[in-house]
């Protein structure tokens, strides 16, 4: 076995080794969708939406959405599965199925009032389309225990944090 020498690092910078280097910049995501599952999360999502992003879209649940006050806004989509009416932070409305067409990641944000019904509908819709799902439970660990239980089955990645600024950090890491 040959010892590793200081000159080994120099060899990595040779033209011969450089041909294996990838110099292309990392492309931004084509479509991150961020959905607030409760009222407090909606405030956090609206604040994050004011920052500069690479095409990420931010939503809250429409009034009447699952878990919100009033009748559930679960609508059958094309295959008979439930769809969710979403409210964009710019004031317009949209359906979950329409927003997932060009999405490659969906981030569900919840606080102490996590919405299990909406998390399930979003998780299932993303799973059918092969879209990665992430859940962000914001609040003290003991206060978000029910939220964690609601998100866990429907999020491939789950982050529990007491810091509301972690949403921006997660979205930056996802190149949203």
Describe the fold and architecture.
With 176 residues, the protein is of the alpha/beta class. The protein has helices spanning 7-12, 15-18, 39-49, 96-99, 116-129, 145-151, 166-173; strands at 32-36, 57-61, 74-76, 82-88, 93-95, 105-110, 132-138, 157-161. Strands 1, 2, 3, 4, 5, 6, 7 and 8 form an 8-stranded mixed β-sheet that branches. Helix 5 runs parallel beside helix 6. It starts with 6 loop residues before the first helix and ends with a helix. Residues 65-72 have low confidence and may be disordered.
Radius of gyration: 20 Å
> According to CATH, what is the class?
Alpha Beta
Terminal residue distance:
45 Å
Order of secondary-structure elements: HHEHEEEEHEHEHEH
Overall tally of domains: 1
Give the amount of beta strand, in percent: 15-25%
Unreliable residue runs? 65-72
Global morphology: globular
| CATH fold category name | Rossmann fold
Number of strands: 8
CATH architecture: 3-Layer(aba) Sandwich
Structural class based on helices, strands and sheet pairing:
alpha/beta
Biggest pleated-sheet summary: 8 strands, mixed
Number of helices: 7
CATH superfamily caption? Tubulin/FtsZ, GTPase domain
Write out key terms for the chains shown.
alpha/beta; 176 residues; single chain; 31% helix; Rossmann fold
List the helices and strands and how they pair.
Blueprint: H1 7-12, H2 15-18, E1 32-36, H3 39-49, E2 57-61, E3 74-76, E4 82-88, E5 93-95, H4 96-99, E6 105-110, H5 116-129, E7 132-138, H6 145-151, E8 157-161, H7 166-173
Parallel strand pairs: 1-2, 1-6, 6-7, 7-8
Antiparallel strand pairs: 2-4, 3-4, 4-5
């Amino acid at each position: 076995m040959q010892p590793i020498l200081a000159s080994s690092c120099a060899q990595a910078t040779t033209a011969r080794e450089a041909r294996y280097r990838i110099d292309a910049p990392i492309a931004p995501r084509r479509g991150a969708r961020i959905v607030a599952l409760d009222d407090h999360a909606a405030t956090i999502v609206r604040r994050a939406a004011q920052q500069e992003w690479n095409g990420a879209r931010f939503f809250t649940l429409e009034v009447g959405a699952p878990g919100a006050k009033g009748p559930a806004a679960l609508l059958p989509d094309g295959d008979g599965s439930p769809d969710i009416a979403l409210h964009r932070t710019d004031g317009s409305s949209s359906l979950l199925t329409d927003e997932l067409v060009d999405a490659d990641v969906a981030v569900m944000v919840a606080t102490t009032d996590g919405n299990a019904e909406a998390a399930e509908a979003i998780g299932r819709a993303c799973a059918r389309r092969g879209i990665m799902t992430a859940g962000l439970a914001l609040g003290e660990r003991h206060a978000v225990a029910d939220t964690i239980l609601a998100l866990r089955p429907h999020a491939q990645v789950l982050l529990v944090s007491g810091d509301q600024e972690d949403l921006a950090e997660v979205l930056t890491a996802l190149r949203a």
